Amino acid sequence: MSLRHRLGKAALAAGVLAGLVAAPPTALAAAGPTTLPASQYTLAANYNQFDAVNSALVSTLGTAAVHTVMDNANHDRTALPSSFSVAGLSTGFRFDSGDNSDCTNYPQGITTSRDAVGTANSGNYDGHQLVVVSWYTKDGCDGGQTRSRITLVDWDATYPNQYRKVLLVEPTGTAAAPDFKDIPIHAGGVSWYGDYLYVADTGKGMRVFDMRKILKTNTGGTADQIGHQTGTTYYAHNYAYVLPQVGSITSKTTSGTNLAWSSISLDRVSKSIVMTEYTCPSGCTDYPNRAPRAIRYPFASSGTFAATTTASQALQLPWYKLNGVASHNGRWWFNSSGNKQLYYWTPSAGPSTFAWVGSGESLSYWEDDTAADLLWSLQEGAGSRNVFAVTQATYGGG
User: Fold this and answer.
1) 67: alpha, beta or left, given left = phi > 0 and alpha = psi -120 to 50?
2) Phi, psi of 130 (to 5 degrees)
């Protein structure tokens, strides 16, 4: 199965891929990142934090494999609008009209099954090539964060152009009385490696989920009901599937300033997760006013984080308002939504700055054995939620 999907031809006919012939963005010189002591940044990993309660939930509710979830996908993705254009555009989609305009739910992070398994078998996980997007939910259009979710989007010509929403939950209760609750985090970044999904938790690090343990829930009740009701009935805001947290990756530092985990991304070459911070040069009240950092944390040979992990690279960055980061084979990209710029940097070549989309969020590197490697990204703004991939070489990748 390949990236050539049925949406591609329709999109081309609609003129969506006009960005492919758009003038290349102009690279501008800029100050580059500087090296920080990597030993100051560590992670503490616990993949078994909720084992007892999760085992009881699995026994009570049963699990649904990813292919089962996708067999029951119930939302249609649509083509990118012909008005959308960005240099190097390769492909993309929009969510359905309801999700595209919803003022209570906002897409943030992006990862794919190519992150999870690489290019083998065309990047299929449980028989499907997928794009995964993390979202946060607000209590009304102007309310606070109340919960988070992911969407699993089929990205393959073999299957319909559909997606399914899965609620993220935290196990509560005991093995004798298992329960779960909402996870009210920003979910600003998401990475998928092997069977584990890592979701950024801004002030703490990452929450860990196991894609083999999606639970089946009752779609009845009211939209505000969550968790155990009576007997074996569990509600989840009318969601049919929930993904329970299995563990936590806790960030620690001796630098004197805690990290803000604004976005994360997977680097398959170095088998690591990279993160960056959304900060301001001055004047912000909701975000730190200081230079941001980017940190690389390597996986152990097991494909998971060791109980304690020390960063292998730490950078102080000259750019601000960063919503996205990607790294691959020694190269780095950073997306600034506030400045509508994409920054590219390598230690040898130095930095370059490219024009980028507004309202841009996370980045994910897509490896391809038979075509050009891509950078996936997305826009969060209601009414213009474009999920798109560009050729990484257009943005300095070579």
Assistant:
1) alpha
2) -130, 150
Strands 341-346 and 331-336: antiparallel
Cα separation, 91 vs 68, in Å, equals: 26
- According to DSSP, the residues that pair with 180 across neighbouring strands are 171
**326-365 pLDDT tens trace:** 999 999 999 999 999 999 999 999 999 999 999 999 999 9
Count CA within 13 A, CB hemisphere, residue 258: 12
Q: Which residues are CB-neighbours of 301 under 8 A, at least 6 positions away?
A: none
Burial 203-226 (b: 16+ CB within 10 A, else e): eebbbbbbbebbbbbbeebeeeeb
pTM of the predicted model as reported, rounded to 2 decimal places: 0.93
Per-residue pLDDT, 151: 98
> If you average pLDDT over residues 27-49, what whole number do you get?
90
Class of domain 28-77+99-393: mainly beta
DSSP structure class, residue 351: E
| Confidence grade of residue 3 (pLDDT, cut at 50, 70, 90) | very low
